[in-house]
Specification:
Length: 149
C-alpha cells in the first residue's frame, strides 16, 4: 500500500460503519459490571460506549450459552433468554426463581455464574451479553438482524 500524502486517515475511520453488535469495540467492553447477588435483581452493565444493559437473573439463566442449553433451546425453538414453555396441558411446575449462588470473572472477557439449580456451564462473554441486551433499543436491532424467524 502506498500512502498518498495529505490524505492520511485515522485508523478507526471504518468503525462507525460496523454494527456495534459485531465489532469487539467499546460496545462489548464493559465500563462497570454490577452483579446484584444479594438483592437478586440481576446484572447491570455500563458499556464503554455509554450504553446501559440490565439483565434479570432469570433472563440470564434462560440465555445460558453452554452447549447443553443451546441444544435444548434449539430443540424447543426458544429464543435466547426466553423462558421454557410448559408442555401443553401440563400443570405449571413450581420452580424457584433462577438466581446465581456465585459469580466469577473469567479473565477480562467473560463472567460465569453458578446457578441455584446447580448449573454452572455457561460462560457469558461480554460480547454475548451485549448481543442479548434486552433493552428496547437493542431488541429492535436484534429483531431486524434476525429477520423473519
Ligand atoms: Zn447451560
Ligand atoms: Zn441495549
Amino acid at each position: 500500500m502506498r500512502r498518498i500524502p495529505g490524505v492520511m486517515r485515522p485508523l478507526c475511520d471504518t468503525e462507525i460503519m460496523q454494527s456495534p453488535l459485531q465489532a469487539p469495540t467499546a460496545a462489548s467492553d464493559p465500563k462497570s459490571v454490577k452483579v446484584n447477588l444479594t438483592t437478586g435483581t440481576g446484572v447491570d452493565i455500563v458499556w464503554g460506549d455509554g450504553h446501559v444493559s440490565r439483565y434479570s437473573f432469570a433472563f440470564l439463566r434462560d440465555a445460558c450459552p453452554c452447549a447443553m442449553c443451546n441444544d435444548e433451546r434449539e430443540k424447543s425453538k426458544r429464543k435466547t433468554g426466553e423462558p421454557a414453555k410448559p408442555a401443553p396441558g401440563a400443570l405449571p411446575m413450581f420452580k424457584p426463581a433462577a438466581k446465581p449462588v456465585s459469580a466469577e470473572g473469567m479473565g477480562k472477557y467473560a463472567i460465569r455464574f453458578k446457578w441455584n439449580d446447580g448449573h454452572d456451564l455457561g460462560i457469558y462473554s461480554w460480547k454475548l451479553l451485549r448481543e442479548i441486551c434486552p433493552c428496547e433499543e437493542c431488541l429492535s436491532l436484534q429483531d431486524s438482524a434476525q429477520g423473519e424467524l
